[in-house]
Amino acid sequence: MKKLFVFAGLVVSLAACNKIEGEGGQGEISGKLEINQILYVNSNPAGNVAVTAAAEDVYIVYGTEDEIYDDKIETNYDGTFKFKYLRPGTYTVFAYSEIFSQGANATNNDDDYYYKVPVKVTVTVDKKGSVDVGTLSLTR
DSSP string spanning 68-126? Predict the structure, then answer.
């Protein structure tokens, strides 16, 4: 009977050590950002060009329980990013597009504005796993 209690206590303590998503592992998530820059002439779209997204913020959410970001990093000069030392689990990586909206007063453009829209991808990282999310395209 005593051995049974010791065994049950050991099982319960090991189950309590279940690690959740976040830092402290050996996994990593990498990718690249590019910006699809919309060119305007007299507040009208006149074309677009894709450029490297240098020095842009990229956010990560650990797990699926939360909508608030847990960490952020800045892209390198070539638009690449990498979140390192992640535990196994599910992660959401996102960055913001800035969408132009022309206001009602077209004569002086004093009510034009931009609003942000998240561009996101959800991935699963395995133990010692490396996940490449590819290229996320933002609009400006």
Answer: S-SEEEE--TTSEEEEEEEPSEEEEEEEEEEEEE--S-TTT-TT-EEEEEEEEEEEEEP
> In angstroms, rounded to a whole number, what is the distance separating the alpha carbons of residues 136 and 97?
10
Average pLDDT over the chain, rounded to whole?
86
- What pLDDT, on a 0 to 100 scale, did the predictor assign at position 100? 82
Question: Token match 């913020």: residue?
Answer: 57
CA 92 to chain centre: 5
104: Cα separation from own chain's centroid: 33
CB contact set of 136 (below 8 Å; sequence gap of 6+): 31, 32, 33, 34, 93, 95, 119, 121
pLDDT tier at 38, thresholds 50, 70, 90: confident
> What's the pTM?
0.81
Domains and CATH numbers, the chain: 20-139 (2.60.40.10)
Report how far residue 107's alpha carbon sits from residue 101's, in angstroms, rounded to the nearest whole number.
15
Q: Which residue has the higher pLDDT, 130 or 19?
A: 130
Rounded CA-CA distance 86/72 in Å is: 13
